[in-house]
Amino acid sequence: PSTKIQAKVTPKALHQLDGSVRHAVIIFKHPVIQPGQSISMMLSSLTHSGPLLAIQSSWPASSVNVILHIRNDITQQHNIDVSQLITNVAGNKQDLWINGTLATQTRVETYITHALRMVFDATIFADNTWCVDVQYRNDIAFGTLGGDLN
Fold it and tell me: What's the pTM?
């Protein structure tokens, strides 16, 4: 017997010639799969159901405490309010990687020093659970803003 489950396909790249999807993010709530078990799936187009999740209104209070030991004599401590970063972005045009009824994800970032920044990929799910992927980036160190961490 077949079971229909809701899925959200977010196209990320299209083929130039015909506009078909070249790369997409697919979000769905899968059934319980036991070890060693497999399932077959087929995607089909259905109508949109339910409101899109608004990440800024659903986000719980959260912060990150970062302690940098740059050298033996230099330590910096930063408390980053991730909730506030998301709220600030909400007032502007949000860059949503995923935007749907099952999950919504946005990216926010802040500079720790002039060369080191933290990037947060924040996701809220339909069941009101959430996750944050955190990246420490020093990828502009050799650019015009780069240089020493302190």
Answer: 0.66
* CB of 86 closer than 8 Å to CB of 105: no
C-alpha distances (whole Å) from 1 to each of 6, 7, 37, 38, 40 are 17, 19, 16, 15, 12
Residue 88: which H helix or E strand, with range? helix 82-90
**Alpha-carbon span 114 to 150, nearest angstrom:** 8
Residues 95 and 108 sit within 8 Å (Cβ to Cβ):
no
pLDDT at 142: 67
Tokens of 120: 């947060």
User: The tokens of 72 are what?
Assistant: 């033996």
Report CA-CA distances (Å) from 116 to 18, 65, 72, 109.
Answer: 41, 15, 19, 11
How many residues make up the chain in this entry? 150
